[in-house]
Amino acid sequence: MDSPLRGRDPSLRVGGGGRILLRRHSSLLSPAQLNLERLYVQNRARQQQKDGSKATEPSTPARIQKDSMASFMDFQVWDFPGQIDIFDNPTFDIDAMFGEIGALIWVIDAQDDYLEAVARLNVTILNLQRTYPNIKIEVFIHKVDGLSDDYKLDIQRDITIRIQDELSDHGFENAPVTFHLTSIYNHSIFEAFSKVIQKLIPRLGSLEAMLTNLCRTCRFEKAYLFDVLSKIYIATDNAPADMASYEICSDYIDVIIDITEVYGSWPRSKGYRESLEGAPWNQKLDDQVASNWAESCMVLTDANRPIMLREVDKYLALVAIMKDDSYDKMPLVNMNVEVVVQGLKEFFDITKPK
Amino acid sequence: MADLEASTPSLGAMGGDVRNEVKKPKKKKVLLMGKSGSGKSSMRSIIFSNYIARDTRRLGATIDIDLSHVKFLGNLTLNLWDCGGQEAFMENYLSQQRVHVFSNVGVLIYVFDIESRDVDRDMATYVSIMSALTQYSPTAKIYVLIHKMDLIMTQVREAVFMDRVKLVRQKTAEFLQGSNFAGGDVDLTPFATSIWDQSLYKAWASIIHDLVPNLSVIESQLASLGVLIEAEELLLFERTSFLVVSSWTSDEGQNNPTTDRQERISNILKHFKQSISRFTGTPRNAEQFTLMEHKAGGRFSIFCLKFTTNTYLMVILPPGEARFNAAKLNCQIARESFKFLDGPISAGGQSSAA
Q1: Which residue has the higher pLDDT, B350 or A233?
Q2: Which residues pair with B190 in a beta bridge?
Q3: For residue A84, what pLDDT is reported?
Q4: Coiled-coil intervals in this record (chain A) (predicted)?
Q5: Do B295 and A294 touch (CB under 8 A)?
Q6: Suppose B205 and one of A99, A246, B243, B261 were both cysteines; which one would form an S-S bond, judging by CB atoms 3.0 to 4.6 Å apart?
Q7: Strand order in A103-109's β-sheet?
Q8: pTM score, whole prediction
Q9: Can you say whether residue B73 is alpha, beta or left, with left for phi > 0 and alpha for psi between -120 and 50 degrees?
Q10: pLDDT tens digits for A210-247?
C-alpha cells in the first residue's frame, strides 16, 4: 500500500499517478495554493467559485474546470472563471451545477478594487438563497499579505457590511456567509480551506469529541486530524485553534514525508531482510514491528515538549502537541492513540456514503 | 542486550588512540571571494546564521571585509573572511591589503555568478586573486562555487556547469603556466550551488569535511557503532549549521538510489528548525530539538538525537521495535566515546582515559 508516511512499495508504483509532492522550496506547490495561484496568472479574475477543495492541473481560461480529490472523502472542485455570469447564461444548467454542492468559495482580491466583485457576489448569493439556501458561502478575502492589520480588518468589515446590507434588503437575515482573510505566503489559506472542508463533513461533532477526549486523557495541548497530502485539517479538539500550532504540525508532516521519500522509497534486498530475521532476534521481520502504521515523535528543546504523529489511514494522520516533559509517557500515549485511531476508522466506515 | 555490552569496550579502546591524534585547535583563515552580488554573504548567512533563503533578500552589500569566527565542533574555529566584491574593494585587497588578506589562508572559496554578463572580466579578477593567493598561501585549498544555478533550466544545468568549470580550469592552468608556480598543480574543487535547494549544503559539507581534524577517527568509530546497532546509515551533523560532518553507510544502505540524501536531510531538518523557532519563539540559532524518532511500519525506522554538545546523530535502521530501542540506548552509551568531538583537547584525553 502506498503511504506518504511509511514509504512506497516500488512494485506498486503505477505511473506515479496522483502523487502530489509538497516540497519545501517550491513553496507554492500545494494543490490548494496552486489552485489559487492559477487564478491570478490566468484570468486575473476578481471572483472565483469552487466547491470542495482542490485542483492540480492548470485550467484553460474561461471554462469551468472540474477536479476531484481522492482522499478520505470524495471532493469535487469546480473552478469557475470569474468573468462568466452563470445566471445570465442559458447554456448553464444551474440545477446540475448547484443541486449537489456543499459550499461555494468566492475569492476576492483584497489588493484590488473589489466593489464589482462584491456586487457580483451579491447577485450570486441572492440567486442561490432562493433555491439552495443550504449552500455555504465562503468568501476568501485574498492576497492580504502586505496589508497592515488595521487595513485588513477594515476591508473585511467593509465587505461584510456590503453583503449583509444587500441580503437584509432582500429579506435574508441569517444567510450562511462566512469570511476568511487569506494569503498564500503563510498558512492562512490552508486554515481557511480546512474550515470550509470541516463544514462539509457529516457529524463533525463526533470527530471533535473523540479528539477532545483524547486530549483530555493524554493531556495533549492540541490535536489535529490532517489530510496528509493537502495539509488540510479536517477536525481538531475543542481547545482554541491557533495558527502557530497548526503550522508546526503541518510542517512536521512535511518533514516526515520528505524523510520517507529519501529512505522509505526503495526496496531492500531479500537476502538482507532475511539476515535481519536471524540471530539475535530470531523472529519474522513483520513480527519485530510493533505497529504497521507510521508512528513518530519529536521532542522540542523548549520545555521538553513532544510533538507526536500517528498515521490513521492512507490519507489521514493524527498530529498532536503534547504536554511538557511527557516523552516518558509515550508508550501509554501510543496505546490511547491506538484506541482513538480505531474509533476514527469506525467513524469513517459508518459515515461514508453507501 | 548483547549489543550493549559489546559496544562499550570496543569503542572505548578506539577512544584511546584519539588522544594522540588530537592537535592544537587551529585558526584557519577561510576567504570567501567573488564578484559583487554573486551571493557570498547570502550563502554564509544560510549556512552559519540559520537564515532561510528568502530572508537573504534583506542583506545589504558587504562593505570591505566581514570577519566572523564560526565555532564548529567546539575545537575548530573557522576564521571566515567574507570579502565584499565591489571592484574598489577588490583592487584594495590586491594592492594595499595584499599581504594582510592573502597570507596564512587555509581555504579560498571563490563564488562565480552563473548569470554574470561579463564572464571575461570575472575570469580576469579571478586570475589576479589566484596570483595573490599562490604568492602568499601556495598550499591553500581552492573551492570554486558556480552559484545561482537555479536560474538555469534543469535540462541544460549540467552542461552549463561543466562549460563554466572547464573555463575556470583552463584560466587557472594558463595562469599557472605563465607564472611558473612552484607548487605544481593547484587543487581546485568545483560545485554547482543554489540557495534554493540542497546543493549549497553539499558544497559546504564537503568544504567543512576537509577541515575537520581527526576525521579518520570519527569515521572508524562511526563505522563500528553502525555495525553494532545494525544500522543502514549514520549521519553525524554539526549542531548549528546541520552540515554533515561525517557519515557511514552499510553495504545494503549503499543501494539507496537517492544519492543526494545527506544534503537533503540537512536541508529538511534545518528548515524544520526554523519552524520550531517560530513556534516556540526561541532564537533561530538556539538548540531546537533533542530527539526525533519515526517508525515507518515494516519499511524502516529512523531517529535523530542530540549526540555530543556540538553534534546530532541520525540513525537509519531496518524495522523492528527491539532493534530500535537497543540502538537508541547504544547511541546514548556511545556518546562517551565521541566526546573528543567537542574539544578542547584535554576533554578528549580525559574522556578516553575514563
Answers
A1: A233
A2: B144
A3: 62
A4: none
A5: yes
A6: B243
A7: A49-50, A103-109, A136-142, A177-181
A8: 0.79
A9: left
A10: 999 999 999 999 999 998 888 889 899 999 878 899 99
Kindly provide the ipTM of the predicted complex, given to two decimals.
0.78
What is the number of other CB atoms lying within 10 angstroms of the CB of residue B67? Answer: 11
- How far lies B136's CA from each of A192, B77, B82, B129, B220, in Å? 61, 21, 18, 11, 36
Among B258, B292, B322, select the one facing A288 at the smallest CB separation. B322
**Are A281 and B269 inside 8 Å of each other by CB?**
no
With contacts defined as CB-CB under 8 Å, which chain A residues touch B298?
6, 285-286, 289, 292
Q: Which residue of B has its CA nearest to A286?
A: B298
Tens of pLDDT, residues B56-100 = 888 888 888 888 888 777 677 788 899 988 888 989 899 888 888
Rounded Cα distance between B148 and B111, Å, is: 10
Residue A346: alpha-carbon gap to chain centroid: 21
Tell me which residue in A7, A251, A288 faces B272 most closely, judged by beta carbons.
A251
Residues 261-280 of B with CB under 8 A from A: 261, 264-265, 267-269, 271-272, 275-276, 278-280
Nearest CA in chain A to B228: A280
Q: Is B293 on the interface with A (CB under 8 A)?
A: yes
State pLDDT tens for residues A130-176.
Answer: 888 878 888 888 888 888 889 999 999 999 999 989 888 988 887 88
Using the beta-carbon criterion (under 8 Å), do A288 and B321 form an inter-chain contact? yes
Q: How far is B288 from chain A (nearest CA, A)?
A: 5
